[in-house]
Amino acid sequence: MTRTVDDIEREAERVDVAVSNGSWTCNLSELGSGGGSAGKSDTGRKAGGMNRQASAPEIYDAADLRMETFPPLRQVAGDIILEGLTILAARPKVGKTWLMLQIAIAVSEGGYCLGDIQCESGDVLYLALEDNKRRLQRRLTKMLGVHGREWPHFKVAHKWPRADQGGLDQLRKWIDSADNPRLIVIDVFARFRKPASPAKQSYDTDYASISELQTLAAETGIAIVIVHHLRKSEADDDPLDTVSGTLGLTAAADAILVIKRTGQGTTLYGRSRDADEIDKAVQFHPGTALWTVIGERDQVQRSEERCAILKVLADAREPMSPKDIAAALRRKDGSIRFLLSKMVKDGEIIKLKRGVYAVSPSPR
């Protein structure tokens, strides 16, 4: 009998239902003839039932949790990199690979990075998926010179299976084989994650691509850093909104670091589930290809005009009006008023009820 399109669609629907119930069995010789059987095989039902079984979830008393003690989170690289999954995002050619190489070397040696940040010693695996041996050699030589140095705890790979093709299993095998696994760097994430069609990119897809790595880091107590990009059109309100992809990426990660260049300099901003927010002014030194932390962003990158206003207010014996401040600086009254309102919002100065300004008792 000739099968119509309607017959095929009805059969496909019947198979979908049977498969979801765990009761579909099919003889390969019957494919295309309407032969498979749904709901007729005890073996199929039993296998499906077994597959659907899951371990019982753990339920505990919140009061018991209060009495438990946990070891502090490992600071793999000070307050920059903690154990768990971290996303490091920046625009192309900003220097994110240089930063992670610097941190990776410091961790493998138990040395310092970004100036004076002490790193915990341990084994490091660096997946340099965009580099080859020649380029990596050039990078390392520029950073450290040609003098001999041995890094028995610093391992590198340039090719690695994608996450859905055994990549996660290979990471776990390395962790199990290392004496003291401390840090894994995946540079870049786009070459490790399961490829996603732009048309199908969604919160759930991005979240799933991160969550397995986050689980691996949590189970093993190591730090995993994935190097990623910022979107072309950057948002100004929240640095996390500039990370390429949906919010599913940043939602699944334990911490996010963003390197951003502005007219006032370069910042390293970080937000974590388990640590305080960081907002550092940093500097990249092209000659050595090393990064250093200069200080807190709001102190280092304060504009010259803001510094001038703070000096005028600090030198004054009493609060000053916008007109008086503008006169002292020989600036226009309107622009000074606008800047004063921003400085009040940033906590640098305070506005008194009678419309005059003074230095904040505890400027940030």
UniProtKB/TrEMBL annotation:
Span list, region Disordered: 32-53
Pfam families: AAA_25 (PF13481)
Protein name per the record: RecA-family ATPase-like protein
The species this protein was found in: Sinorhizobium fredii (strain USDA 257)
Lineage: Bacteria, Pseudomonadati, Pseudomonadota, Alphaproteobacteria, Hyphomicrobiales
